[in-house]
User: Fold this.
Amino acid sequence: MFRFKKYVLLFVLAATLLAACGGAKAPAEEASCAPNCKYTDMTLCYPQLGAESDWRTANTASFKETAGEYGVRLIFSDAQQKQENQISAMRACIQQEVDVIGLPPVVEDGWDAVLTEAKNAGIPVIIVDRSVSADESLYAAHIGSDMKLEGERAAEEFNKQFPNGAKVLELSGTTGSGAAVGRAEGFRAKLNPNIEIIDSQTGNFTRAEALPVMQAFLQKYKPGVDFQGIFIHNDDMGIGAIEALKAAGVQPGDLFIVSVDGTRGGFQAMVDGWFQADVECNPLLGPQVLEMGLKLMNGETIEREVLTNETVYYPDNAADLLPSRKY
Ligand code: GZL
Assistant:
């Protein structure tokens, strides 16, 4: 009996050592063409989260156009803002033994299992745009905006506009998404204490869902009296909110509205006097992600965290800039 126990102990020890030093993992992440892989050798999986906004449409176009230009085989899917669809698409890509997965996660949580499956299959994952809460060891890198900074920038606009204080509403993005979480956190961290957020509701980053939310706000709060401003987490929800504001007789400029993204729709809302600032959030990440993917295929090291440089746009030059906007 003692001998049996000894062998069991040895087996467990060996298995533990193997797992700890990655023995349980698949072959190294370098592709077979390393170190001379070219873009035409790459199969990139991009399980896009949806088509909920102009920002997302531009993000999709960036990947499709770049892949087409570089000769990369792109496996694209649209998850219609459902995490389970993104996970299924990732698993299909793992089965197809793609070279790289770019994941634009709809929400922060719930990715550990599928990221572990990709890692064990030796397929590097680049987290694109929004962040994930999974351990960093489960993915190769993240590239996207500093969402907290975007929220802080929005707060600074309200602080400048209302030195003596104000009451504001918040129309937030998809619940649990890195974009909404970060923007809300940054907004609250930087907002002056004499500016009160009297209510916050999600519009899920879409025009259609923002409209009824704004209508409900207007049933509860008198514009200009109960609130003086609105922080809106993306331009699409802003455009939905404007429809409700117009129907309620609100005029451009009656309220101080700050949005995020900097899409053509947001620029037009600034030209029309509805938005007083639009915090940039750049969706055109295709070239950078493909470059990072090629480096991973060739076994090169890449930056683990790549944050896009962004700014704030204002109405004073929105009309001049609008024609040249890429999204
Ligand atoms: C932000 C991105 C957000 C945009 C929205 O990086 O994830 O999702 O702000 C989009 O327009 O729907």
